[in-house]
Amino acid sequence: MKKINIKKYGGYDKLLFEDHPTPKVQSKHVLVKTKAIGVNYADICVRWGIYESAKQLVGLPITPGFEFSGEIVETDSEVKNFKKGDRVFGLTFFGGYSEFVSAPESQIFPIPDEVSFEEAAGFPVAFLTAYHALFQNIILKRNMKILVHSAAGGVGGALVQLGKIKGCHVTGIVGTTKKIETVKSLGADHIIDKSKEDLWSKAKKISPEGFDVILDANGFSTLRKSYLHLAPTGKLISYGFHSMLPKKGGKLNYFRLLINYLKTPRFNPINMSSSNKSIITFNLSFLFNRQDLLQEAMSDLISWIENKKIIFPPIQPFPLNKVDLAHKNLESGETVGKIILLP
Ligand SMILES: NC(=O)c1ccc[n+]([C@@H]2O[C@H](COP(=O)([O-])OP(=O)(O)OC[C@H]3O[C@@H](n4cnc5c(N)ncnc54)[C@H](OP(=O)(O)O)[C@@H]3O)[C@@H](O)[C@H]2O)c1
């Protein structure tokens, strides 16, 4: 079978399209022939060698990829709820960029009727991240005011939709004008186009008293101002740092990375307590053993898909052997919705 293998960290040329033996199905696992594979910003960080869980828990060589959809071709005798031929989607702790994935039964789910393999493949990571942020870290209530950075992206778009499902007032921020329509279609109440208007004066106009929740994966470029624009009792959820990283060329500039790291604000808990504002942060890839969180989230998310409360984001497909182009696109910061790979 074919899979993408990384033997050395670096640019697009490090994504090798190779032949490997098809994995053997392990205990309590199913073997899935993949039909589509989700691409996430984290996969780019894996390629660069700066993704902590990949370095600590896997090392090199590594096949990136956290999510996939496909058909079960084999099940271990201890698997209870799935059989050969089932249409499934699910999560894998790396190894997703492959024609076959062996995954534990607990990490796969039946694809709801009317959902395509392409839609299903790009769903879990973005929506689980958004769900974890909004429902497993804070107490989200109706009419709360939420501000979502990069609202047309994979996670950003999911945050907009889940915020609306809860009845919140959602403002989405986009980096380019062409992303506005996508965020509108997801139900945002307000959109700030930071390429055309001043982000923070518009945010202040929309919510003069500040926001109850701000979701920021930019890192140093907006984190300090995001914190300042919280209302008392507000929560800043910081779940990524992509503004530290390059948008083109595919290679890291370590000097720039260090400067941007040093520019990342540090917060003082003594001042935070006086202003009643908090910061929350997490990385889902270190929570792969938390079955309780996964099952709770997927159960709600699948029921929202079935009740048509969630719409699938726009999808841009690339063949598996053109993974370099998929990374180049996502890295550019220009994409909307999800990028997927087709084996
Ligand atoms: N903590 C976790 O467990 C977890 C889980 C999943 C994802 N994440 C993080 O969530 C973020 C979004 O991930 P995603 O896969 O859904 O990607 P995405 O949002 O589809 O794409 C990234 C978006 O970020 C913005 N951006 C700003 N500066 C950028 C830069 N230097 N390079 C590239 N993009 C830049 C761009 O939107 P605008 O220009 O419109 O802002 C771009 O479209 C990433 O930072 C990722 O690491 C974290």
Describe this entry's structure for a reader.
α6 (180-185) links the parallel β9 (169-174) and β10 (190-193). The chain is of the alpha/beta class. It has helices at residues 41-48, 52-57, 117-121, 124-135, 154-165, 180-185, 199-206, 223-228, 254-263, 269-275, 291-306, 323-331, and strands at residues 2-5, 16-19, 29-39, 67-75, 87-91, 100-104, 108-110, 145-148, 169-174, 190-193, 211-216, 230-238, 278-281, 315-319, 338-342. It has two domains: 2-123 and 314-342, Medium-chain alcohol dehydrogenases, catalytic domain (Quinone Oxidoreductase, Chain A, domain 1); 126-285, NAD(P)-binding Rossmann-like Domain (Rossmann fold, 3-Layer(aba) Sandwich), CATH 3.40.50. Strands 3, 4, 5, 6, 7, 14 and 15 form a seven-stranded mixed β-sheet that branches. Strands 10-9-8-11-12-13 form a six-stranded parallel β-sheet, sandwiched between helices. The protein is built from twelve helices and 15 strands. It binds NADP nicotinamide-adenine-dinucleotide phosphate. The site of NADP nicotinamide-adenine-dinucleotide phosphate has 31 residues, from α1, α4, α5 and α12.
| Shape annotation | globular
The biggest sheet, with number of strands, parallel, antiparallel or mixed sense and barrel status, is: 7 strands, mixed
Query: What count of helical segments does DSSP give?
Result: 12
- Helix share bin: 25-40%
What fold name goes in the CATH topology slot of the largest domain? Answer: Rossmann fold
